[in-house]
Amino acid sequence: MEVLRDVRPLGRLKTIALALALPLMATACGGSRQAAPLRPEPTGPQWPIKTREHVDLWLHGFAMLQEDTARVPLFARGYRERMTVLKNSRNVYTDLDANRDRLARAIAGKPALVGAQFIALYFGSWEELTRAFEYFQTAEGDPSRASNQEAQGIIAFLAQQFPTPEDRDFARVFVRALGDESAKFHHDWWVGEQRQRSAALARADDLWQDQWRPALQRFLNHTQQANGDLMPSLSLGGEGRALPAGNGSQFAVASPSTPDSAEVLLYAFVHEAIGGIAQVAVNDNLTPVQKRNGLADQYGSAGLVRGGAILIERINPAAAERYARWYLAQAGEAVPSSNALAALAAAFPMPEEMIESMRRQVDIAFGGI
User: Shortest CA distance to 94 belongs to which of 188, 182, 192?
Assistant: First the structure.
């Protein structure tokens, strides 16, 4: 993975995340048989909304370490600054603060470590995640040193993201620092935030299950994102973290703070759910030379924003204008009182053939043609 530019590299983070999933998938038999998935396919309601403290903690750690210069920020605008002020006001100093410069230098020196943001999505709890890293560190990243097949699969999975001794050292320090961050600050803060946002999340859940998700379900089925977990995350804004995986998809998206802002959950979801279609539209309309010159990254970032607008306009045209205003604000652009979709198109320009490709694919997904 190359250095993150001022525009989001479409699919690059997701490509890394999906590659990491391979050792977790059940395959063949015999000595080469891999471990079963850590996260079983969800049962019950389709796309339930779930709060996940360990996912928030993991993403919080990266938000506190990364320099975020993406056009649509990788984390909620001003998140690190707000957390720093809050921790200082409480006289809190943790191992994450003590090791911040060391960990930030590691990420700056090897940007592929940014892909580790997705790891928490593969685990059901902080206890599962830390146990996996204990296996990994004890075996020094070597699956052949595992005591059983399940541990072997977990170690192989983590070794893809942390292949070198330096990478393993980063993981060791980071996981330990997050544990201290949780004990001294994040857990109590997170519980308080969930309490304050309970009405917002209840409103979002009602709208999601009664209106938005049913309206999107045909599209989700067609794009192999039929079911999964939808996780509102306190550290995220316009950029979510998505692992599309059929009935076991995992999406972390922005968390609404008030009932009136419940719709941001839908905005962030469609931005992620359109990812596969946007990637096809971009790749099919660029030459190899253009891709080597970085245009795939440039248009890929715009494709998620513009494609999300196409998708939400399909199910709720009025919401599409509000979506456009929200993403303009996320990108630091002026937000007009009207014609926000036109302003969004100007702020995130794309060749018309890419836009038309996304429209055709969305039509097909909804059964329009």
Answer: 182
**Contacts (Cβ under 8 Å, ≥6 apart) of 11:** 275, 279, 300
- pTM of the predicted protein model: 0.88
Residue 88 · residue 201 · CB < 8 Å: no
Contact criterion met (CB below 8 Å) for 108 and 62: no
Provide the token pair at 66: 């990364």
* 95/90 Cα distance (integer angstroms): 16
Measuring CA to CA, which residue among 138, 133, 139, 144 is closest to residue 170?
Answer: 133
Give the closest residue to 306 by CA, choosing from 268, 345, 272, 276. 345
d(CA 313, CA 345): 14
What number of other Cβ atoms are within 10 A of residue 174's Cβ? 25
Q: Which of 251, 257, 254, 252 is nearest to 236 (CA)?
A: 254
- CA 225, distance to chain mean position in Å, is 15
Helices 352-365 & 295-315 angle (0-180, nearest 10): 40
Local confidence pLDDT in tens for the 369 residues of the chain: 222 223 234 344 444 444 444 444 332 223 333 333 455 555 667 999 999 999 999 999 999 999 888 899 999 999 999 999 999 999 999 999 999 999 999 999 998 999 999 999 999 999 999 999 999 999 999 999 998 899 999 999 999 999 999 999 999 999 999 999 999 999 999 999 999 999 999 999 999 999 999 999 999 999 999 999 999 999 999 999 999 888 899 999 999 999 999 999 999 999 999 999 999 999 999 999 998 888 888 899 999 999 999 999 999 999 999 999 999 999 999 999 999 999 999 999 999 999 999 999 999 999 855
Separation CA 200–CA 67 (nearest Å): 30
CB 331 within 8 A of CB 317: no
CA dist., res. 326 & res. 45, Å (int) = 29
